[in-house]
Amino acid sequence: MDRWDVLGLAGVLLLGGGLGLLAPWLGLAAAGLVLLTIAVAGAVAGERQAAREQLVDAVKAKGGEG
Questions:
Q1: Can you tell me the distance from the alpha carbon of 6 to that of 43, in angstroms, rounded to the nearest whole number?
Q2: Whole-model pTM above 0.70?
Q3: Is pLDDT above 60 for 12?
Q4: Quick one: how far is CA 7 from the chain centroid?
Q5: What is the rounded distance in angstroms from the CA atom of residue 3 to the CA atom of residue 39?
Q6: CA geometry: angle at 12 spanning 44 and 17, to 5°?
Q7: Which residues, other chains included, contact 31 with Cβ-Cβ below 8 Å and sequence gap of 6+?
Q8: What CA–CA distance (Å, rounded) separates 34 from 23?
Q9: 8 A C-beta contact, residue 25 and residue 19
């Protein structure tokens, strides 16, 4: 479990908690949605970076340019 998973979990909990309340639900729900969006974007960026590093390593191992 990395930091993006923790942010995603916090976002889901805040979103669910905010929707369960009557008065301050909008603030909690908005904060949860923002955290969830950041978590998903960070996880996607991390996966892209890992794939890019694997590609670079494969090219180096194959004896490619550079």
A1: 11
A2: no
A3: yes
A4: 7
A5: 8
A6: 165
A7: 14, 18
A8: 19
A9: yes
